[in-house]
Design brief:
4 helices; nicotinamidase activity; hydrolase; alpha/beta; six-stranded parallel sheet; Rossmann fold; globular; EC 3.5.1.19; binds pyrazine-2-carboxylic acid; metal-binding; binds zinc ion
């Protein structure tokens, strides 16, 4: 029988107010996400998990500032403040998140030379995280996504989920966005056009 899973994207301290890459209102969604977790038959979490001096950090590119872009071998990459460094408290899940029932934690962004927004593929759109195979082996055909940030990790995960053949929805009330240069409108449109159900 086909089963459903909830994928909770990057609900980590660094993406919440007070964190290194705070998403406005990022902590407001914690109670909503907790309710979704309680109701979900299977729960999977992602955790942004960068080594120090990761290539997505502006601090790794002399003369560059956060939110500027660089061209990487795999294409254009936005530069971020140092965030979600492996083992740091900023990389921990928000303390209010009730995540203990999660069956899998997918860590991503752990290769120094490449960023990974999506839960499925790194930013070269070629290197898999293994999540699609895990879901298929477990007979999960439908995924719902929530978390941070709507216009980056949630959106790229949703686009890849659809492309991998999963029936995909995003619970927008349980997401918050960064909205860099109109990215929230652009990525919302891309998700809708790709066949992601926006709830
Ligand atoms: C994210 C930027 C950099 C996200 C992660 O979770 O949306 N955004 N790393
Ligand atoms: Zn990151």
């Amino acid at each position: 029988m086909a089963e459903d899973a909830l994928i909770v994207i990057d609900m980590q301290n660094d993406f919440c107010p007070g964190g290194a890459l705070a998403v406005p209102g990022g902590d407001e969604i914690v109670p909503i996400v907790n309710r979704l977790i309680e109701a979900a038959p299977h729960v999977i979490l992602t955790q942004d998990w960068h080594p120090a001096r990761h290539s997505s950090f502006a601090s790794s590119h002399p003369g560059k500032a956060p939110f500027q872009t660089v061209t990487m071998p795999y294409g254009e990459q936005t530069l971020w403040p140092d965030h979600c460094v492996q083992g740091s408290s900023g990389a921990d899940f928000h303390p209010g998140l009730r995540w203990t029932t999660a069956e899998l934690v997918v860590r991503k962004g752990f290769r120094t030379g490449i960023d990974s927004y999506s839960a499925f593929f790194e930013n070269d759109h070629l290197t898999p995280t293994g999540l699609a195979g895990y879901l298929r082996e477990r007979g999960i055909a439908k995924v719902s996504l929530c978390g941070l940030a709507t216009d980056f990790c949630v959106a790229y995960s949703a686009l890849d989920a659809v492309a991998e053949g999963f029936s995909t929805s995003v619970v927008l009330a349980a997401c918050r966005g960064i909205d860099l240069n109109g990215s929230l409108t652009a990525m919302t449109r891309r998700m809708r056009e790709a066949g992601v159900e926006l709830i």
